[in-house]
Write a sequence for this structure.
């Protein structure tokens, strides 16, 4: 499968501190990629590098099969970007903003589609942008981003500050866009429930390192919580492959583990607990477990070792 | 048929959809021959990635519960007697054993479980009674 976005050891340093550290991103064409991480994890910096607004300290970026440094005009016209906070010129009317944005996508601007989106949100082209609500601005920004019918759409936290209904409408617009074949979307977000609905793949950035990169279902199914009950004081957990976190709560030892299997079961049983149990996690809890606590030894989920498992997932989704 | 996505669930969304269709058929809420919404439609209704819906439908087709008639849509399949008596029995036994294990751990008595099973059975749509081919196994 061709990649709409591919990076190779993409790195950004500010004052000797690595904000983005050796990112090998590969986003298949036609997928919706949810880009996750806590504040300051490096998401926005990564997105700005992808859009050519921040120069990488190191590494390569390819968009739609072209090196970013030599991106032809034709390819630029097929990429749309929605910056954080929907920055728009307040003095323009919606129609003026459309003419302005359309100039960046010569020959691709779909006026009818733009009008349809405006109609859907009951917005008039004559309305001044500075008089719009946050939700309305977000919808205008989205309409502007999808009017050139982009092959690649990059959205930096697009639903930030929107109320529930506006968010729902926004996600629905994203679904409409995905249903046109081959469109690729990368969006960052903090709302895990949205990500789970809309994204078929997710990436989790922890301190500038991509710790998770796999289908959304795979992440949810792979991460589980194991609870061990002891008669007395629990022993320290010696660790096992795939261990994300271990902590003690009274007479219980709680673990979060990736791909719990016979090997991890043996490690658990070796401690001789009175009883133990494995349960799944919802996406939010899995994300919290993954992004909190000691980070040096976090297991990587996805990447090359996972290729075989992902292959079968992709077939199921086709 | 009403679908519902639970964002707090531990089940991936495609599994939630699979379970809802399975249960809908078993309870008689959807009947063989009935049409389900297209992938496109359901994806919009639920605001869910179309690949996720497609994955659920593919899985249900593989299980023989749904039939995809190209150009016409997705339908609830007629029950197919593809599995042998023995395979069906084995599959059900596994499920029953899981249920009984849970019941023992939760501290229910045998009689309580039997009563609960009888009570819940009324909520489902059953096939016609068949004369038992092997008779009771005569376990104590």
């Amino acid at each position: 499968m061709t990649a709409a976005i591919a990076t190779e050891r993409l790195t950004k340093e500010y004052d000797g501190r690595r904000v983005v550290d050796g990112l090998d991103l590969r986003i298949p064409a036609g997928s919706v990629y949810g880009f996750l991480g806590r504040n300051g994890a490096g998401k926005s910096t990564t997105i700005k590098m992808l859009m050519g607004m921040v120069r990488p300290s190191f590494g390569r970026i390819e968009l739609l099969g072209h090196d970013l440094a030599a991106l032809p005009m034709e390819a630029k016209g097929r990429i749309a970007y929605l910056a954080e906070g929907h920055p728009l010129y307040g003095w323009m009317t919606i129609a003026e903003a459309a003419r302005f944005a359309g100039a960046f996508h010569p020959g691709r601007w779909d006026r009818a589609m733009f009008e349809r989106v405006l109609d859907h949100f009951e917005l008039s082209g004559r309305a001044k942008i500075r008089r719009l609500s946050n939700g309305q601005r977000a919808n205008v920004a989205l309409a502007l981003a999808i009017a050139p019918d982009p092959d690649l759409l990059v959205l930096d936290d697009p639903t930030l500050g929107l109320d529930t209904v506006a968010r729902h409408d926004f996600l629905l617009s994203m679904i409409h866009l995905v249903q046109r074949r081959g469109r690729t979307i990368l969006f960052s977000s903090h709302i895990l429930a949205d990500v789970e609905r809309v994204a078929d793949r997710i990436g989790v950035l922890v301190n500038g390192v991509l710790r998770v990169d796999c289908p959304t279902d795979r992440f949810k199914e792979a991460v589980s919580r194991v609870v061990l009950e002891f008669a007395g004081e629990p022993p320290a957990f010696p660790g096992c492959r795939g261990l994300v976190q271990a902590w003690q709560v009274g007479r219980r030892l709680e673990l979060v583990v990736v791909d719990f299997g016979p090997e991890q079961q043996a490690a658990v049983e070796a401690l001789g607990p009175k009883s133990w149990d494995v349960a799944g996690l919802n996406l939010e809890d899995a994300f919290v477990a993954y992004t909190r606590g000691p980070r040096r030894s976090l297991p990587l989920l996805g990447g090359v070792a996972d290729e075989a498992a992902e292959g079968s997932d992709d077939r199921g989704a086709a | 048929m009403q679908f519902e996505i639970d964002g707090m669930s531990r089940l991936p969304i495609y599994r939630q959809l699979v379970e809802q269709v399975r249960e809908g058929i078993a309870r008689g809420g959807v009947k063989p021959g009935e049409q389900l919404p297209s992938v496109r439609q359901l994806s919009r209704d639920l605001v869910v990635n179309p690949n996720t819906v497609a994955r659920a439908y593919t899985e249900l087709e593989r299980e023989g519960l749904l039939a995809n008639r190209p150009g016409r849509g997705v339908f609830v399949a007629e029950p197919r007697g593809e599995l042998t008596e023995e395979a069906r029995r084995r599959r059900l036994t596994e499920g029953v054993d899981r249920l009984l294990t849970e019941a023992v751990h939760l501290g229910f008595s045998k009689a309580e479980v039997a009563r609960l099973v009888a009570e819940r059975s009324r909520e489902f749509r059953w096939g016609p009674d068949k004369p038992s081919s092997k008779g009771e196994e005569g376990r104590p």
Notes: Chain A touches chain B at residues 32, 168, 171-172, 175-176, 178-179, 192-193, 196-200, 216-217, 220-221, 279-284, 316-318 (CB under 8 Å). The longest helix of chain A spans residues 164-178. Confidence is low (pLDDT under 50) at residues 304-318 of chain A. The two ends of chain A are 12 Å apart (CA to CA).
